[in-house]
Amino acid sequence: MNRRIFSIAFILLCSMMLFAPISFAAEVSYFNIIDETGNIVYITGWQVKVGDQCLTAENKRYEVISVAGNTAKARFIGDVNMSLYMPGNTFNYAGLLGVSVANAQDSGKVAIYHTHSDESYVPTDGKESILGDGGIYKVGDAFASALKAQGLEVVHSMAKHDPHDDMAYERSRRTVMELLKQQPNAIFDVHRDAVPPEVYKTSINGQDVSKVQLVVGKYGPTGKQIEDYAMQIKAAADQQHPGLIKGIFFAKGGDYNQDLYPRSMLLEVGAHTNDRASAEKGIALFADVVPTILGKTSAGAANQEGAAGVGTTETGFSGSTKSTFWLIGLVVLGSAAFLFLSTGSVKEAKSKLKQFTSTEFANFFGPKKRNRKEKDDQDES
Amino acid sequence: MNMPFGMIALVVVAVLIYFGVAQRILDRMRLTDKQALLFIAAVIAGSFINIPLLRSPIDMSINVGGALLPLLLCLWLIAKADETSEKVRAVVASILVAFTIYLGSRFLPYEPENMFLDPKLIYGTAAGLIAYLAGRSRRSAFIGGVLGIILSDIVHMLTIIRAGIPGTVSIGGAGAFDVVMMAGIIAVMIAEVVGETREKLQGGPVLGPHRPEGLYEFSKELAAKELKKKEAASQLQANDKRGEKHE
């Protein structure tokens, strides 16, 4: 019986290897997010779900309430006052907590990688997907050289994570950890979107460029903190290059490895329908904003130096603080629920908790205590 | 690194919670509290070591903390299993998990805009459910999660070699935070919750006078301990009094 089960499982494993798909062609369709009056407020690649949110270029925040076909109806949440998110806004007691951020002034290091290694731009690259060598790497190169021109140190990972499937983020997670070992100040995952060209097309300083969309993984307790970071990026970018940021998409479905580092951001530079040159120009403009976000500029309103990052009187608690509360809250709630579930009654749960706190870790201190007791006994005798 | 205080606090809290939970899970894997802590320390240290396995046709490496140590723990758990059927179930569960990941990565949505659940959770949950159904044990859930992801990495490697796609395979490359460890941990949590819920739905654990003999009761044990303490204290008092009388 065991042998039969085992052989079935083995055949299954072999079949996976044999029939593993080679082509992962992306289905190109997109979603329009409309407001209550039917106006299109946001366009994004592929499907959106109820509960997803977006912040438009004009800083209006919407939440998707229903999805029918390729149209998602959204509820207007409110106008976001981006000036509150300017990196210059400091917490009242920032001075007290400033010690924590006092460190040697380095030039700043930025890491860049590409989870979807195949993403390409049809007008320039010929195809929307080139496995292992997408046009997106050239956009990454343009970003890297623009950052270097700003005096920042850049680590651009050429690691490949194909095929373009659901495990790609788990593979790029390994790249992120490799990059984090080099202690960057910020890390960017550069992608491209899949929508009609006009969604990303714009003209800044007289040149045609592709806009940049920020994607925040709302999934997981660190989402709040990344949301804050995205708002700061948009606030800084709106001041330096108005119109460059297409908006922020708050996706519920994943954390896109943003849980690994507080200054992680997913960027979508143009769509497959835009030409790559415009995307390269767009990301180069975005590079101008990076020193401001990192607090590497010498002075000015947008300097984050000394900010304690725990919130301001105007905005309330910061995303980091909210995320910390979330984490602790989840652990407390989860433990309480599990204790109740596993013991069956509040009384038993309380006893188990007591037993846990009094005896579970006793063996770490046990020998010491025993020694002391023995010593006491000796003294007495 | 010019990081605000709030961010640092968040990182510290998140790391402490993650390793705290991992420790609670690992001490169910035939490890004592101390061994579980040592294992975590080894995983953290091992996260910085990558052992190259292949150079051509693609780069393949295995991370000591992220994959090799969890793999060895799983193999040890399988070897230590009491019955052959338990061993077979654990291996079968791992293969089924690998198959689920293969199917999932093929057919589940993969764009940030339309993922409905983080892959780490999907595969951890799948591993937990499959391993629980196959073996009804936390250990096989852990084995299913860890080996399932490692197997799926091997499948991925063969896929890209066959398709001639340039790529790298770094098994467990994200160290302690790799999906290998996370899937193992989530799988045990799922098995634990499913198992306890099932027991609860079936009417257990029975409390009060009809509780089956041998079923652990924390309150009872504590009550007995407290009783012992009181007895000891009263005995001590009695001794003291006796001592006074002697004087």
Task: Write up what this structure looks like.
The complex is a heterodimer of chains A (381) and B (247). Chain A has 381 residues and is of the alpha/beta class. Chain A has three domains: 30-78, no CATH class; 103-320, Zn-dependent exopeptidases (Aminopeptidase, 3-Layer(aba) Sandwich); 323-380, no CATH class. Chain A has ten helices and 15 strands. Chain A has helices spanning 2-19, 94-97, 122-125, 136-149, 168-180, 223-240, 276-294, 319-343, 346-360, 362-380, and strands at 30-34, 40-45, 53-56, 60-68, 71-79, 109-113, 153-156, 186-193, 201-204, 207-210, 212-217, 245-251, 264-271, 311-312, 316-317. An eleven-stranded mixed sheet of chain A has the order 2-1-5-4-3-12-11-13-8-6-7, with helices on both faces. In chain A, strand 4 (60-68) and strand 5 form a beta hairpin. Chain A starts with a helix and ends with a helix. The relative contact order of chain A is 0.13. Mean pLDDT of chain A is 78; it is low at 21-26, 90-104 and 298-310. Chain B has 247 residues and is mostly helical. Helix content of chain B is 70%, strand content 6%. Chain B has one domain. Chain B has helices spanning 5-26, 33-46, 64-80, 84-107, 119-135, 138-163, 179-201, 218-246; strands spanning 50-54, 59-63, 168-171. A three-stranded mixed sheet of chain B has the order 1-2-3. Classes of the chains: A alpha/beta (381), B mainly alpha (247).
